[in-house]
Amino acid sequence: MTPSFPPLFTGLDAGGADPFALACAKAADVCDAGLVTYDLAHDRLRAAVVLAPEVPLREAACMLPLCGVGFQNALGALAPPEVAVHLGWDGDIYVNGARCGGLQMAASNDDPDKLPEWLVIGLSLELWPPSEETGLTMDATALYAEGCGEVDAVTLLEAWIRHTLVEINAWADDGPARLHRNWLAVAHGRDTEMTVVGRQGTFIGLDENLGLLLKTHEGSQLIPLTDLLTEAT
């Protein structure tokens, strides 16, 4: 079944290729914002969306947690009520406490003060575990191993884009306060020790641009979302 997206969004089947890399390539070739690339394999859902921010990268990078909130809302509406979905600050997605997938981000430039020509957010979600011995990897899981066998991948992809669009519109109208609040409500690892982009400390909060505040032995450190930028391979 071919996914259906809201107006101004267009779908492109990656045909087994990496949708994130494809979206970055299309964005670099000046495609329209709203392109959704996807690859729906039997064991994994991969997708990416091209965005065209109108604010500097420092602010635009909040599209990573925003797309996470959109995904959390989408899966939360489709999964059984007992299934818990949480988000890691680095883009990881957790289902019932175990990592099930993640989000990644690339942009046309890495200067926080510069307006990016494009921004791409990629999603990868494990649908089936690599083996039936799921107990061997307690910190990793797959969607259908967590009581979500009725969640159709196409429906989930469509819902992710719809819910993300709602969050984008709210962010554009009201600023980051709602996103700040909604993301913290489903944050994974608050007040716990973690290592993020090579720095270790206790997750104590977010700044106004959803940068991570870590309490370390040397004091508090701020890790901006722009530190999570990756390059498509």
TrEMBL record:
Keywords: Ligase. InterPro entries: aa-tRNA-synth_II/BPL/LPL, BPL_LPL_catalytic, DUF4444. SUPFAM superfamilies: Class II aaRS and biotin synthetases (SSF55681). This is Biotin-(Acetyl-CoA carboxylase) ligase. It comes from the Bacteria. GO terms for molecular function: ligase activity. The keyword Secreted does not apply.
